[in-house]
Design goal:
The structure is a homodimer of 575-residue chains. Chain A has 2 domains: 1-133 and 362-575, Urocanase fold (3-Layer(aba) Sandwich); 168-355, Rossmann fold (3-Layer(aba) Sandwich). Chain A contains 18 helices and 17 strands. The first copy, chain A, has helices at residues 17-29, 54-66, 107-115, 135-156, 192-198, 210-218, 229-241, 254-266, 294-303, 305-328, 340-346, 358-367, 383-396, 401-413, 431-443, 482-492, 525-548, 552-561; strands at residues 42-44, 48-49, 71-76, 79-85, 93-97, 179-183, 202-207, 224-226, 246-251, 274-275, 332-333, 372-378, 421-426, 451-455, 463-464, 498-503, 513-521. In chain A, strands 3, 4, 5, 12, 13, 14, 15, 16 and 17 form a 9-stranded mixed beta sheet that branches. In chain A, strand 8 (224-226), helix 7 and strand 9 form a beta-alpha-beta unit. The structure holds nicotinamide-adenine-dinucleotide (NAD) (2 copies). The site of one nicotinamide-adenine-dinucleotide has 35 residues of chain A, from helix 4, strand 7 and helix 8.
Chain lengths: 575, 575
């Protein structure tokens, strides 16, 4: 055990904030409040690591402390491999994690290389040092469940094709009077119950590992834990009836519990309205088959990874079959980005892809506007700084009621984990305004220290992932991976402080390529120039990616907001 | 037919040389003197294209002409997709070609997407606008065959483990008195006969397409063409006996001719000393099966790509079997980077990987020093400018006899194709000196216009390709693709004028990821600063990549020449 926590306050040990910031953010990713298994350097999402080893961690910290503001550190899958003299506009850190040549991009080959000490799994924001705890996903999950609720409402009102925009002044949230069933209460999945209850829905969440559920109760993300299924069901049904947000965690294996609840649903004992899942399905060794207990999990997975994988895939086939049959019964069912459909397919279930991924179902229209998970962190460590930024953002976008609702809920309900941070979705034309605003707050001393600004790799123009972010693209370009690579090169060319290219992320080896960028608002003129370029161009990639794929909304946004696109696509012409 | 040729001279139509240069180089790649099939925008290597379509070509040219020196154009698989405001240190063009997510990285999926107009094959320097005709590969091929010759000499002298360094003052080249058999006389492969004869060897090269062979005779790369096998063999045997460089092209299918020559070799009719191949094996549709004539090739491949692929793989199995059996007979046999071993394996031949790739066999020690294919182009179009640079390079490196030998041979034997260009291998610590030298020549008016400086994607730190550049790495890290991505990010951070990330290149879809960078010595102070950073850091990646993999020579080079590496590897410790 070696607890790491980012330094707070205004005194720095690196030569400038441009190198202090990545150092603190790396440390913050491993803060026991933030990381799932800090001793093993695992931050979230199965085995997503912040550094390859403790030796590599120490070397990164040491190197960052000694670097000048025109030097650049290279990190190869969590290991620092070189320092080059570049220039002040260049990133201070360049990161590439978990990338493999296509024909070798398989879990067995990846694990072999990982065991040899040659690579690590970077997930999305673990190896790129901008994970901010469960809050990071909470806002996206909140947006998704709000969109689900709006779709259910619209369906009831017979306007399914045109779900109403967020009803800001509605007395109750869009999930009031509904029950959501889901699985997996880990680093990401733990955001689901609160996201549902913030939308006034009832939520039953299934996890095999009681400690995962208990932990979320402590953090106010989950209302209570039940080990008796009848009691758990009674509680959520009561909440649903009373149109009250309430969440219950049930300890069990989803591959058994989902079919059992389906049976009761069919028998008329309860009605489930929404079904999804966020177990760590993307990595079969992180999904517990029904044959084993939690205690047997690790030793069995290590002793026989291939046998374990087969069992896990079989369990997922049953798990997904229940989900598909819930859809047959009329429930709203979606894949929540963990690749469970493909694992179930491998487990022999033929209808695994009968329900859609959440991106085409709810998120793509937002991506067309360059909307995505904008997040920031107060390097001072002072929660007061986030309050100041929350207030300033509300004043910057006074008309955006949806944003105000979220920020108010977040201030009230979200507990900080690690350095105080905030997330909200902003689009093209908005993000750079927010960046410049934060830079001014720093320059004017309205916050105590510089602000780090980043985002998830799950963003509008930053990822190729045919089972998630780029599932069912209009032009069929799901698997084209040029976009995230251009995105990373653009970030490196636009003043980002660190830039990353990862493989695998939330959907697993072989299934995605994605890029990230982080910048530091340190109050200087140079930072202002960088933030303007970076936070314009980065969401701009989302707009051009969707224009190129033929989405009309994206073409409108590009035209209205002045995104330069050399070949404006004319319908019916060769691209 | 739409002939394109780069403008010559000092008048520019773009706003500066930083955008004029990529425009001229794109056009130069399509110059009928340079490109294999310019009408289809195919530059070399099967279907390696410079732009996705003529529309895309026009839009790229138009966009480059209008761009400021703080704007950046994004090119996605040959199509211009956006322009962003960045900064003067940022590249003017960012390129990503042919990249696919791992599980979709297959030829059928790639071809489907290509047919939909969503991607194109970029090869290495086709889609990255720094192909300079056959000369580009000639020097690398010359170096390789020289190394082969030295190895044969050392073996004869019983010092196989330590081949002598290039014997500069030897009266004859290292291949004198040997016969080399090879296949494929296309864009790359056409360099083989001259590379052999420059080393005083005899060479028999087999190609199905007579026009490909004739073309090389016109260009002085091949001495003569024969359609009669007995006559062809007699001629090369005579040259071998007389220890004289001489090359003969024979029209035939390698899958038939190689086994036939093996039969005669076994019968004692001739002795083949070296065997290799550069048919377009990486793309089975570009390899002619024995069932078809050259005329049937295109229609048959289009009518039934899968059936054609099977036939091609079967033919390659017989082709490679002959190569392996030549090795059994004592010949020096190597794969020359076209992935033919893996295709033969798919064609059902079990010993396909019995002979090594050329990189582990001859090139890796050079990579450890950051040595690789440094190339430059005179934008003036004036051959005199290259003469001036040749002379200046000789004066800059007066001790490097090996380099002088090559430059003298190149000046005498190499005909320019398209814009005058030169290539030579330089290492870490040398390349930036050459770049600064060229920048001074431009500033002082010793050459008439700026000089473009680039390299192949086949370089010491720019590629992950387990069947070629990273085959049999010491630590087993062959398939780790973080390195080329870090390389591209480093180039974008170090002042390159254009940067590219490609997938597939010479070995085909699913088998490699690689990066390129090009810069422009325009005589300014800014260019000098950029060239210093870029041409230090880019070969620096080669050094650190090989240090990390455990090569001692690379560690020595890093220590001697001051490459900063945070974790100097101690033997036996976890990496
Ligand atoms: N939708 C998104 O935006 C998004 C973003 C990131 C990650 N993800 C994916 O979501 C998944 C969850 O991520 P995480 O960070 O929460 O992972 P995690 O490893 O922290 O948590 C997974 C949880 O699933 C539980 N679990 C495993 N097998 C189970 C079974 N058979 N039945 C019930 N519970 C089981 C585990 O006990 C654990 O609590 C991953 O696949 C991740 O890649 C999705
Ligand atoms: N070693 C390296 O450094 C390197 C670099 C780049 C490319 N390559 C690879 O080398 C190969 C050749 O490249 P290229 O640009 O010359 O390709 P190309 O398409 O221009 O030429 C290939 C030649 O092979 C001939 N050919 C095809 N099938 C044949 C057969 N059955 N028998 C005899 N001849 C046959 C064709 O007629 C053609 O002339 C490619 O696979 C390329 O990817 C190697």
């Amino acid at each position: 055990a070696r607890p790491v926590r980012a330094p707070r306050g205004t005194e720095i040990t690196a030569k400038s904030w441009q190198t202090e910031a990545p150092m603190r953010m790396l440390m913050n990713n491993l803060d026991p409040e933030v990381a799932e298994r800090p001793d093993e350097l695992v931050v979230y999402g199965g085995t997503g690591r912040a550094a390859r080893s403790w030796k590599a961690f120490d070397a990164i910290v040491e190197t960052l402390k000694g670097m000048d503001d025109d030097e650049t550190l290279l990190v190869q899958s969590g290991k620092p491999v070189g320092v080059f003299r570049t220039n002040v506009w260049a990133p201070r850190v360049l990161i590439a994690n978990s990338n493999l040549v296509g024909d070798w991009a398989t879990w067995p080959e990846f694990r072999r290389l990982e065991a040899e000490g040659l690579t690590m799994y970077g997930q999305m924001t673990a190896g790129s040092w901008i994970y901010i705890g469960t809050q990071g996903i909470l806002q996206g999950t909140y947006e998704t469940f709000a969109a689900v609720g709006r779709k259910l409402l619209a369906a009831r009102q017979g306007t399914a094709d045109h779900p109403a925009p967020p009803a800001q002044d509605a007395a109750e949230g869009p999930l009031a009077g509904t029950l959501t069933l889901t699985g997996g209460c880990g680093g990401m999945g733990g955001a689901q119950p609160l996201a549902v209850t913030l939308n006034d829905g009832a939520c039953l969440i299934v996890d095999v590992d009681e400690s995962r559920l208990r932990r979320r109760v402590g953090k106010r993300y989950l209302d209570e834990v039940e080990t008796d299924l009848d009691a758990a069901i009674a509680k959520v049904c009561k909440a649903k009836e009373e149109r009250r947000g309430w969440s219950v965690g049930y300890v069990g294996n989803a591959a058994e519990v989902f079919p059992e609840i389906l049976r009761r649903h069919r028998a008329g004992e309860l009605t489930v309205d929404v079904v999804t899942d966020q177990t760590s399905a993307h990595d079969p060794l992180s999904y517990l088959p029904t044959e084993y207990t939690v205690e047997q999990w690790k030793p069995e997975a290590e002793a026989d990874p291939e046998g374990f994988t087969k069992k896990a895939e079989n369990a997922m086939a049953r798990h997904v079959q229940a989900m598909v049959e819930f859809q047959d019964e009329g429930a709203e069912v979606f894949d929540y980005g963990n690749s469970i459909r493909d694992e179930a397919r491998k487990g022999g279930y033929g209808r695994a892809f009968a329900f859609p991924g959440f991106v085409p179902a709810y998120i793509r229209p937002l991506f067309c506007e360059g909307l995505g998970p904008f997040r920031w962190v107060a390097l001072s460590g002072d929660p007061e700084d986030i309050k100041v930024t929350d207030q300033a953002i509300k004043e910057l976008f006074p008309e955006n009621k949806h944003l105000h609702t979220w920020l108010d809920a977040a201030e009230e309900r979200v507990e900080f984990e690690g350095l105080p941070a905030r997330i909200c979705w902003l689009g093209y034309g908005e993000r750079h305004q927010a960046g410049l605003l934060f830079n001014r707050l720093v320059a004017e001393g309205k916050v105590k220290a510089p602000i780090v600004i980043g985002r998830d790799h799950l963003d509008s123009g930053s990822v190729a992932s045919p089972y998630r972010e780029t599932e069912a693209m209009k032009d069929g370009s799901d698997a084209i991976a040029d976009w995230p690579l251009l995105n990373a090169l653009t970030a490196a060319s636009s003043g980002a402080t660190w830039v990353s290219i990862h493989h695998g992320g939330g959907v697993g080896i072989g299934r995605s390529i994605h890029a990230g960028q982080v910048s530091v608002a340190d109050g200087t003129e140079l930072a202002a120039a960088k933030l303007t370029a970076l936070l314009t161009n980065d969401p701009g990639m989302g707009v051009i990616r969707h224009v190129d794929a033929g989405y009309e909304r994206a073409a409108e946004v590009a035209a209205e907001r002045g995104v330069k696109i050399p070949m404006t696509p004319a319908p019916g012409t060769a691209k």
